[in-house]
Design brief:
The chain is of the alpha+beta class. The chain has one domain. The chain is built from three helices and seven strands. Strands 1, 2, 3, 4, 5, 6 and 7 form a seven-stranded antiparallel beta sheet that branches.
Amino acid sequence: MENRFEQFEKDIMEKLLTGNEEALNILHEQYKSAIKKKEFSGSGFFTNFEIPKNALVLPKKRSFQFGDVVGEINDVENGVGFVLFVKEGKIDMLEGYTYEEKWPDKIINYKLSYISGDKRDLDKIRKKWQ
């Protein structure tokens, strides 16, 4: 499960951090050098990030969260959601969750999309860090 999960998590983060925005670019750079620790809760997972001390942080060291990415995963009838927490200008934690279902033991196949559809609503996300 670990290798497939690693790719799954990477795909989630790529989708969350995609966009021609300085804030998203900074967070994406942090993710590339982050140390990751995972914990499974039964109905989801938490990935905590440790960012190198010399990493660029968001201006004003803002704290916020956003989660406009959802997914379909094998064996999860009602889909899954994700929230990325940013603390003091650095990515802090990614939460993945089901809607009151058990998280699958193995990620076999999945599809990720934006809540707003094919085109991301960056205006909504942008308000989180401004």
